[in-house]
């Protein structure tokens, strides 16, 4: 059975790429919201967004940050990283810039969203790894992520337990 995870990502820029990762079926994430539903959640303000995140993250064993060109440093992604860690969940990042979007375009590689966080005196990157593919072709990027993401999630859970 696939692990249940929470996908963290920048909706506006990466929802197509995230949908591609979700369809791989290697791990089970929360249902992805339509743009209309996301706008409805956002319309409720910060409290509604926090409630949605908290509700959707409940019962998940790992946070998977799908890293696009503009993911790092976003308010809600930072909130999700901190919440997942504080809740004892594994935390892992997967660079998705090499997957094509709906316009058949790839993106620039984004920064590591874990780089600014500390766990005590140590960098969070010791416990929250981020993975990039060695490939440039979207087809091979897809295959690489598909073949490895389940193990990356398992490793993140092991690293979290060891922290």
Could you name the key traits of this structure?
163 residues, alpha/beta, Rossmann fold, five-stranded parallel sheet, two-stranded antiparallel sheet, 15% strand, globular
Topology record:
Blueprint: E1 4-8, H1 11-22, E2 28-29, H2 35-43, H3 45-57, E3 62-67, H4 75-86, E4 90-95, E5 118-119, E6 122-123, E7 130-131, H5 138-162
Parallel strand pairs: 1-2, 1-3, 3-4, 4-7
Antiparallel strand pairs: 5-6
Helix pairs in contact: 3-4
3D structure, described in words:
It comes from Pontixanthobacter gangjinensis. Pfam families: ThsB_TIR. Residues 6-100 form the Thoeris protein ThsB TIR-like domain. By secondary structure, the protein is α/β, with parallel strands linked by helices. It has five helices and seven strands. The chain has a five-stranded parallel beta sheet. α3 (45-57) packs across α4 (75-86). The longest helix is centred in the last third of the chain and has 25 residues, at 138-162. The two termini are 26 Å apart.
């Amino acid at each position: 059975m696939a692990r249940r995870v929470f996908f963290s990502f920048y909706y506006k820029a990466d929802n197509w790429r995230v949908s591609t990762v979700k369809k791989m079926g290697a791990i089970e994430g929360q249902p992805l919201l339509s743009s209309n539903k996301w706008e409805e959640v956002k319309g409720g303000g910060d409290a509604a967004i926090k409630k949605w995140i908290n509700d959707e993250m409940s019962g998940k064993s790992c946070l998977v940050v799908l890293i696009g060109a503009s993911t790092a440093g976003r308010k809600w992604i930072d909130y999700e990283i901190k919440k997942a860690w504080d809740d004892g969940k594994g935390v892992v990042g997967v660079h998705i810039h090499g997957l094509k979007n709906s316009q058949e375009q790839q993106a620039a590689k984004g920064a590591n969203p874990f780089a600014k966080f500390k766990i005590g005196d140590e960098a969070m990157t010791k416990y929250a790894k981020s993975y990039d593919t060695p490939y440039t072709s979207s087809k091979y990027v897809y295959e690489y992520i598909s073949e490895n993401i389940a193990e990356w999630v398992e490793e993140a859970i092991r690293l979290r337990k060891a922290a």
